[in-house]
Amino acid sequence: MYVSANLVVALATTLSYVFKFYNWMIIIRVLLSWVNPDPTQPLVQFIYRVTEPLLDPIRRVIGYNTGIDFSPLVALLGITFMEQFVIRSLYDFATRLR
Q: Which of 1, 29, 15 is nearest to 83 (CA)?
């Protein structure tokens, strides 16, 4: 049982890092939108490629009529919720396995 509990803890920790990575990528993208960077720069392209699959569906659902893009805010709130719900649930499940 300890092996399966450790596996669940490792999964929870890895997911936590993925969620934090996405949080930072979205925050950096928002900051980049304020300074209008060169879109041909590889780092900017990487950040756009990483965040666009998450932000584009949100934009399609909530719209972009006001001129202000709220999709990063919705994505950050969603990631925070998922982090709190999924990660804590996995840690609780691992505790019960021990």
A: 15
Q: Which of 1, 7, 2, 8 is nearest to 92 (CA)?
A: 8
Would you tell me how many other CB atoms lie within 10 Å of the CB of residue 41? 11
Domains of the chain, by residue range, sit at 2-97
Whole-angstrom distance, CA of residue 27 vs CA of residue 65: 22
Q: How far apart are CA 80 and CA 96, in angstroms?
A: 24
Rg, the chain, Cα only: 17
pTM for the full predicted model: 0.86
Return the closest-CA partner of residue 98 out of 16, 11, 8.
8
Digit-coded pLDDT (tens) for 6-49: 999 999 999 999 999 999 999 999 999 899 898 899 999 999 99
